[in-house]
Design brief:
The chain has 67 residues and is mainly alpha-helical. It has helices at residues 3-28, 33-66.
Length: 67
Amino acid sequence: MNKETSDACLKRLGKIEGQVRGIARMVEEKRYCIDVITQIAAVRGALRRVEEFALRDFVGQCGEQTI
């Protein structure tokens, strides 16, 4: 993974980590279920974006080398 992609992924993963901790607090505080589910969906979306960065990097670099 190139440095630019790696840095972007790590930055997003740090934010995702904070979101997951927030969800854990929400569960501990017995927050309304739909709010928890909404935040889980947001984390899933954020993880998909990280996956897209990694896949683009793979196709751009590793895929060329493999072919």
